[in-house]
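Pipeline run #58 for the internal structure catalog. This entry was flagged by the ingest filter as a single-chain record with no existing model, so it goes straight to prediction. Upstream metadata was stripped on purpose; only the residue string is passed forward. Reviewer on rotation: M.T. Logging verbosity set to normal.
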Amino acid sequence: MQVTKPVDNVQLLAGVSRVRDELYWNVDAALRLRAVAGGNSSVFAGLTRRYEGSTLFDVFATDDPAHVVIDAHLRALGGEVVSYDIEHDARHYRSSVRPLLDGAGRIVGASGFAIDATAEVEMFRSLRRTEETLALVQEAAHLGSWTCEGHDARVTWSDELYKLCGLPVGATPATMDLLLRFVHPDDRLALEVALDFACEELATYSLDTRLVRADGSQSWVRHRGFVALDPAGALRVVGTVFDIEGRKAAEARLVRHAHYDDDVTGLPNRKLLVDRMQQMLLAAHHNGSPLAVLFVDLGRCKSIGETLGRAVGDALLSASVPRLTASVGEGRTIARCGADAFAVVLGDLGSVDEAARAAKRIVAAFATPFDIDGLEIHATASVGIALSPDDGETPEELLRSASSAQQHARSTGDGSGAFQFYAAATHATAIEQLEFEHRLRHALDTEAMTLHYQPIVDRTERPVAVEALLRWTDERFGSIAPERCVALCEDLGLMGRLGRWIVGEALAQLARWDAAGLPALRLALNISSRQLGDAKLARVSRGRCARRGSRRVGSSSSSS
């Protein structure tokens, strides 16, 4: 059978194959290759001479794709146009074969061509592997993705985005309206604005919103994405939706622990107290009702912690919370705002008498001793009351006024607990008291106090002992009574430090008298009753006696 025009076609295509890496061929009805034109790549090099004149049965005698190739050519001899892909010699070919007609229009063979698509196939396989890996990563990370592209704004969702929204995969057509429908109504506008801006500026966006799933459950998610133009000039938006509920919860716990919760009592600390007071002050201003702040200080709490240990002091603070709650009622704001101080905020007051009654109940509640690990602990409460707006218009002003009133209540009380409303005059007194405390601490640091020694005589008026008396003269406050100094040291938890200094200084004076050859005298010391069980004071006393080498040192203790 003579083939004329088809062979010319193959020769013409040979020129094209030099530019495009393709292979063209004709076969006759016996599937014998009559013309082959190869491309210019190493894959097709030499095929024209190697296979021309051979049958397809010879070319694919032992290769797996033989049945695919031969079947396609037989169908072409039957009048079909057939496309097929094969793997041959580790290469991937994309092929097509069609009937070959003679001048009379009769089928006399088949004409085909093949393209080496190995690189393209490998690229798509790699892309598929990447997509599969990405899908696994998205599922593990609860990361959904979506795209919106083309002039028709086609939207696609990843499987994980459907899952995040609580929908069966592919059950609902993906649209932007559907995505926005699952955003919390309060957050929807913010996301729309972020997307609009990104589209206008071809920019990125990032925003945290609440996701409302199909079943009504909610979680925090982070939206991120970018906008660009595709080759056709249409917008292409790529977005991700990442579940950050666990991260949000962890961050909230860290922030709350670092800035709001008190480790010992579990109450809000001063920072959270101020935040709440700001909201309550706005409500009080709107309602026209006063707001009361009660500053509650626990007497002797510092000295208890110093004498019995920090664990006992912390346990006392924790045990104080139920008493405060019972005194002012559930739902009231109670916070720890100092080492041994609490603040109570009372809103919606009908009258200021309600604040006074609450303060009385607090004082009465702390009159009962605490049982801390079998120890009976007495800790009285003194309460200062400040009212808005007269005593302050900001949280800090009200807390300062209430603290000032509390200090006045403590200084004027009998030690069993008291309460006091804020007054400008008492504030000046409180400021003076704070300065006095500062001067006392400075005096202890610089050992500015002195001991005077009063002789104790027998019936014959012969000195047999001396009593050490504490004296302190300050530049601003003048001569300070020992009772005031000791009482303040007890309140501030400084009694142990003061007592050890008194003992050490008195023993040093006895040693100096011994060195001067004076008769031995007994020493009487006035120390706080709380120091009688102070083991450290006893060790300091014995050690200093040994170092001073006193000849005959005796001591008697009395409490003040």
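catalog note: Residues 1-20, 41-48, 548-560 have pLDDT under 50 and may be disordered.
catalog note: The chain has four domains: 5-116, 130-248, 267-422, 443-559.
status: ready for reviewer M.T.
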